[in-house]
Amino acid sequence: MATKDNYRSILHEEVENIHWRHGGPPTYDLVNKLFEEGRTKEWPEGSLEETVQNAIKSWEMELSHKIRLQDFKTIVPEKFKLFVNGREGLSAEETLSVGSYNALLKSSLPKDYMPYNANEETFESSHEVFKSAFPRGFAWEVIKVYTGPPEIAFKFRHWGFFEGPFKGHAPTGKMVQFFGLGTLKVDDTLKVEEVEIYYDPSELLGGLLSSGDNTNVSACPFST
Description:
Blueprint: H1 29-38, H2 48-65, E1 81-84, E2 90-91, H3 92-98, H4 100-105, H5 123-133, E3 139-147, E4 151-161, E5 175-186, E6 192-199, H6 201-209
Parallel strand pairs: 1-6
Antiparallel strand pairs: 1-2, 3-4, 4-5, 5-6
Protein name: Pathogen-related protein
InterPro entries: NTF2-like_dom_sf, Pathogen-related_defense
Organism: Cicer arietinum (Chickpea)
């Protein structure tokens, strides 16, 4: 029997009725361990911060592992929009089609200056790229919550260890992390209608393009 996930309670609800991308519910043992060892905040049980943190983890789980919007429990599919760095919003269908990595890393830079081209990656290939680079997963935590529902504003941190190859770049074993700000617009049942994320992609991609010899991450074109 799978270990109970302390951060994604919906994993254990009506599992048999869900259409899973890989045939069954995922396990998060590795990334949960990474999270618990590396988090900078440990929020009280039931706090707003813990609630927001677990809600985002649950939404990411659904986005990565469920194939039907009707199975999602964290969002209002017909109203949902994802906005990243001020770009045009993606609907629930569009977000599910491209996947979280491609949604976060879409860029208007010329192709020759893209270390990662979201337009040429599929949902599946994007997950393979980052699963390869971060074999233990890519942990996520809430740093601060500024406002409560229905418009929740928060600061977050995302991190992992570059322990596998990324687009021809050898792993360095170093931590790669980035910080960002986000908002959640939720309904009266706390289901998400809109997500808005702001962050600097060079904090992520710069760490994956570094040679491990203290090369300045400004070599990443995202930072110019």
